Amino acid sequence: MAEQPRTLGALRRSPIGSPDRVLRSVKDELRANLIARLRGGIPIFPGVVGYEDTVVPQIVNAVLARHHFILLGLRGQAKSRILRALASLLDDVIPIVEGSEVNDNPYAPISRYARNLLDQAGDDAPIAWVGREARYVEKLATPDVTIADIIGDVDPIRAARGGHVLSDELTMHYGMLPRANRGIFALNELPDLAGKVQVGLFNIMQEGDVQIKGYPVRLPLDVLLCFTANPEDYTARGKIITPLKDRIGSEITTHYPESVELGMQITQQEAWADRGLVPVRIPDFVAEVIERVAFEARTDKKVDRRSGVSQRMPISLLEGVVSSAERRAIQLSEEEAVPRLSDLYAALPAITGKIELEYEGELVGAASIARELIRRAAEATFRARAGGANTDEPVMWFDEGGALLVADDVDTASMYEAFETVPGLLTLVQHVGLAKNRDRATAVAACELVLEALVARRKISRSDAGQYGRAHPEPRRRPEDHFGGGLSA
């Protein structure tokens, strides 16, 4: 690669200083680089799974159309990751007027500082180069964000030192948006932004005009604006000013993984499971149960659907489960760490900390709901894999008074021997194909899956201490227990 020019004259004479390239807007730059990726079959957003046929095509269309756009979705739907990945569509470096706070284009400066420098130095004006990472600016919108934070403010100290009047543009301290000039400005949770700041964004998008302390300043910024928001907040009247909403070219809705398999792929990609100290082997059915916990939570009426259940929940849960298995392997000097269903209970905080509850759920309690989610997830996994397998033999053993204590700190050999005492359990596990490797660690984990499924079906019971026993009999209801009981017609 040729050496980068360091003066305006050298830039004009350089092949990379072509006006067609240097004067190209950031939206045209993104569009050109995106087209090159599409032609080359290069992934647009590497690492973003499950959006290939839904979200990604809409973002591609928005970039090709040179639109400002917003991503609408609940938490944990990779919105911020997608916005940050947009920076990879920028050029490696671009030339700016050296010392410029707003990445002034040497051929078309917008700040008074750059215009004065170019007028004074001419072709000897110094040129600097800015990488793509510095051209991506991200801000979380909060109610206390001000116009000064986003657009800028008058700096009295700068005015005094330079001998300028306050209305002089040279006294201005630029905010985050002008500093993102010739780049991407991403604003998360747009509805949380105060209305007057939204007006400032609208003015920038529409006319490029802003007023700082009452002084009009012309800032024809070249920037791609991207936003994120919760769909419910975005559509609520009063959260977004209508003129700003009207200027956002594309409204793109994200979503959670549409299948358990996709969710598992995302979770395994993001979770820290390979610890290095002790080899970790995660049975596929354990990973499936972990993922189904999130799927069950997203449909549970006691969980607030407006807040959503982030994909970070199964990721954190998998990491907690692996940690529990790792701790057991270290303490018991086992050769490898193989997670079991009991490890999900040990990692309960990874669930309770990631769900927002409705009023009914608050009455029950987060821990109780989390345990129920684990059982339902285990039953769904067992049903999907085992179908209508006959479980009468182990259920009968528990009905006749059999009991079994399962803890997350017992070694594999002892747990296997304990499961051997339950008639038909190990045979059932192998019959349904959950322990294909027939190794004891996987068989133990599979036995726990079967037991959890039976608990979910109310054929056996499980205490909070991990003891399985006969199913609790359904309490007999008195007539007055029914709704309306005791009231005459």
Radius of gyration: 30 Å
Give the name of the CATH architecture of the largest domain.
Answer: 3-Layer(aba) Sandwich
Largest sheet, in brief, is: 5 strands, parallel
Distance between the termini: 90 Å
Strand content: 5-15%
Number of strands: 14
Structural class: alpha/beta
Q: What is the CATH third-level topology name of the largest domain?
A: Rossmann fold
What integer is the average pLDDT? 88
Quick one: overall form? elongated
Fraction of residues in helix: 40-55%
Strand order of the largest sheet: 4-7-10-1-11
Number of helices: 23
Number of domains: 2
* pLDDT < 50 runs, ≥5 residues: 476-489
Name of the CATH homologous superfamily of the largest domain: P-loop containing nucleotide triphosphate hydrolases
| Text of the CATH class of the largest domain | Alpha Beta
